[in-house]
Design goal:
It contains no helices and 10 strands. It is mostly beta strands. It has one domain. The strands form 3 sheets. Strands 1-2-3-4 form a 4-stranded antiparallel sheet, with no helix packed on it. A 4-stranded antiparallel sheet has the order 5-6-7-8, with no helix packed on it. The protein has a two-stranded antiparallel ribbon with strand order 9-10. The protein is globular and about 40 Å long.
């Protein structure tokens, strides 16, 4: 779970189908974004980037994940990193300088 600049929390889907958005101030939760499928361990980590968005590196998903926190939208992006049976990344962090996120 990562805290975004909009003060909401975001949890990428590991076995869930969509990203979980948590509003602690209102005591509310909701799922956002497109259906990303069930079953496979898709995303296990996320980081808030300096651009105000949240990024998740794929554990067994094929693509990286971007959450636009202002628009409450989610999209997969980047090159196809291969099949669901192949574990890839289990950590991600925003760099202290340069505005980049690394997995």
């Amino acid at each position: 779970i990562v805290r975004a600049p909009n003060k909401l929390l975001y949890s990428p889907p590991l076995y869930a189908e969509r990203v979980l958005e948590i509003n602690c101030a209102r005591g509310a939760t909701r799922q956002i974004g497109p259906l990303l499928g069930t079953g496979e361990a898709k995303y296990a980590c996320a980081a808030a980037a300096p651009n105000g968005r949240v990024y998740a590196a794929p554990l067994e998903a094929r693509f990286c994940l971007e959450v636009d926190c202002e628009k409450h939208e989610v999209q997969e992006f980047g090159m196809d990193l291969g099949g669901y049976e192949k574990e890839k990344y289990s950590a991600i962090a925003a760099a202290p300088v340069g505005g980049k996120v690394y997995a």
